[in-house]
Amino acid sequence: MSVHDRKNLKSALESAILYLQKQGVEEARQDAWLLLEHVCGISHSTYFVHSEDEMPKEQQEQYEALVRKRGEHIPLQQLTGEAWFYGIPFFVNEHVLIPRQDTEILVEEALRGLPKDARILDLCTGSGCILISLLVTREDCTGIGADLSEKALQVAEKTRSLLYLLQRKQPPWLLHSL
Beta strands of the chain (E only): which ranges? Predict the structure, then answer.
């Protein structure tokens, strides 16, 4: 993979799939597509209509760099900066763990036993996925997310700010360094 060889969308995707397969990435086809979608901001239908269009040089450079990092087995979510958890998009990076689907069971169980107007303390909040999911689901509750890592708190704050900005509400929780 080299930006010296200008590629159209189709050949860039095919090259990325082959590269990721050679690197032992299990979901090579899906990951190559998701990275292309992330870099170019395109849908499947746009891709099929414009697959023969040449990629702009900057996008090709960015795409190839991300594909190489994915080939080093850096999690896809860290490369795109986003992970979905409990139907909510969360910002993620190398400073937080990637939210796992099996942790959604914890959120579901907590919601079953959560009393009205509960105050929640989420220690080692990381990306904030547990606390934010609880508070988005139960608007009567408030909470505090605490973490030793200032960088992790910055990641959680980014998600918190975006979600509540979109809802035009004051967030019902705070972040605090331990």
Answer: 82-85, 88-91, 119-123, 142-147, 173-177
CA angle 124, 162, 77 (to 5 degrees): 60
Alpha carbons 123 and 142: distance in angstroms, whole number: 14
Token digits for 149? 């890592």
Kindly report the pTM of this predicted structure. 0.81
**One-letter amino acid identity for 134?**
L
CA distance 81 to 123: 23
Q: 43-92: per-residue pLDDT in tens?
A: 999 999 999 999 999 999 999 999 999 999 999 999 999 999 999 999 99
The Cα 141–Cα 92 span in angstroms is: 24
Q: Give the residue carrying structure tokens 């799939």.
A: 17
